Amino acid sequence: MIGDMGLHFIEGKPSEVEIGYTLMPAQQGKGYATEAVHALIETLFVKYGKRRIIASADPSNTSSVRLLERVGFQRIDDETYEFKKAGMKDE
After folding, report:
1. Scanning 12, 19, 61, 65, which has the fewest C-beta atoms within 10 Å of its C-beta?
2. Which CATH number applies to 3-84?
3. What residues does each domain of the chain span?
4. Tens-place pLDDT, residues 24-56
């Protein structure tokens, strides 16, 4: 195993989900996390009908912050990022 991903389905918000991920240090910088997060986003939107994905990152973990920004997440506060399905309006 080179890492893992987790999902948290948010009670009372059926269109939202929170994701998390870890990757072994020896496997970082090879594009695995980027590929996995892209695939997870696609699966959550297409298969599960989610419209908003949340992820948290420690600001000092610059690799994780850059990953979230690279795949299209937008910062909404110091540690939280979101990815909204195109055309979604704030609820």
Report:
1. 12
2. 3.40.630.30
3. 3-84
4. 999 999 999 999 999 999 999 999 999 999 999
